[in-house]
Amino acid sequence: LKMSWLWLYLPFHLLTAACLCHSIKAPTTGSQQSFKSSLFNFYHSLILADGKETTVHLLKDIPKRYYFVLEEGRAPAPFTVTVTPCDVPIEWSILVHKASASFLGKAAQGDYDTQEASKSQKVPSMVPTIFNYKGNSVETYVGMSSHPALYMLEFLSTERDTHITVYLTTDTTSGHLYPELPLDPRIDVIGIGHTTVTLTWKHSPSVLQHRENIQYCLLVNEKHNYKSLCAAETAIRSSGMKLPPTLALSLSPYLLEPQQVMILSNSELSIINKASSGEVRQICMGTKNTYTVPSLSPSTQYYFDVFVVNLLTNASAAYTGTFARTLEEPEPKVMELKDGKVIQVVLDGKKQKFYSLQYQARHKKVQFAFQLCHGQVWVHVTKNGKTVASENILGLRYLSLKGKLLDTYLVQLRSTEESNSSVKVQVSSHFHKPLFPLLPESLKIKSFSKLRTCNSVTIAWLGTQEQSKYCVYKKRIEENQVWMELQSTDRCSGPESRQKSEKVLCKYFYDINLQRAVTTETIKGLDAGTLYLFDVYLIGPSGIPVRYHSKVVKTRKKC
């Protein structure tokens, strides 16, 4: 057989034949009526392109038809039709009309007589449907015919509006649009951890033949398996997430870097290295057929789909998806807090893990003290399993609690940002011997713009009703260092961490009247037009320092 596409003249010929049928005044026979109906259906169908993937949009309960023509040739040849549903299950079928070359020729000339055709039995007859399928899997029909024929494909969606892709080819010798799957297309789970799953699968024959044009891509999500990339793209779009118009989730041939991770979250596409609930991860790893998926959540079920992708045509074939549940996270190690002892905890922001501390009360009243050193920290405190406090720590925070002897307190700490955070923690039953100094109402340092000169700066800060030591330090910085200096400040470090050359002075003061517990200091000997970072340390009776918020001031350039 030889394939020919009659898209310029076939509809006109069929219309001509249909008009001839309608012009017959004599009663029509059953076969003639069937012929007219068939011609009407074909005339209202679209031609299916050969060798190209066609996207078909379906409206609910409205069938859509496409056709192609096979005419008489020297020998029969096969043809294939592949249909990929991109959403809900659909119904599709293939019907065929067989006709002689003379019938098509007379219809083309417009002098075909249907009554004569009925007598000579040259009217094309409809054979039973040669193929029918209902579902949402990718399905391929391979056919062969030795007769001139019109083939019609009919598609129907009964659930909702959707779209599909259809691929027809009559050239089975020049290679495949879709990569080939191995005889066993299953994905094997060979390793499961708390945050990782290791997968392996058999190589596609296409990878062995065309390694430079083929790659494997993995889709990871927490909902269900996808039978095609087309289906995955549709599901993500319907959830309200945005996809780049040229990339979407159908793998771009330009994604050649191995182990690229694209995550859809917060309605935007971003390339990051971790997963969160509800995200879809797409990972392309070249031609490797073993991969360990990292950064998963413990005790969570994930679904894994592997697609082998032709980078030249962007067509893909799906392995049989699998799923696995990560292991439960082991109980965090709990460190015992000792009465009156201060510990400093460094929290890993990337892993977002809890750090747990436990304390058994020796008195009815206990007091926790938290001093934020760096970053942002969230604290959660329970007493005998019941929550008594849950908040972010800002500066120095005291938490006084009342209970019973031998009550068990559990303190859980976690960094609320991706960088590392640190905090000092102390618990004590001796309220009259606080470890941290008494704090003023505010830890801000104020500078006076009107008192600023080319070589001096005047600053002020609040004190307390308790006699305490205050030390002032200065540091010369550049314009581009301001943000980094303020962000990297360790608020728990004391004067011992500073260079001796940065020290300005130390002094004691207090005032019973808090309204008058304010002190000022003029720092001289500075350079004109220069930025300086000023710090004040408050050191109480216990010797533990508290750092005021750093202040950046620039001296006048001209005086």
From TrEMBL:
SUPFAM superfamilies, from UniProt?
A: Fibronectin type III (SSF49265)
Kindly indicate whether the keyword Transferase belongs to this entry: no
Give start-end of the signal peptide. 1-17
Q: Which UniProt keywords apply?
A: Glycoprotein, Neurogenesis, Repeat, Secreted, Signal
Q: Where is the Fibronectin type-III domain?
A: 179-316, 437-545
Q: Which GO terms describe its cellular component?
A: extracellular region
- Main subcellular localisation: secreted
Protein's UniProt name: Protein NDNF
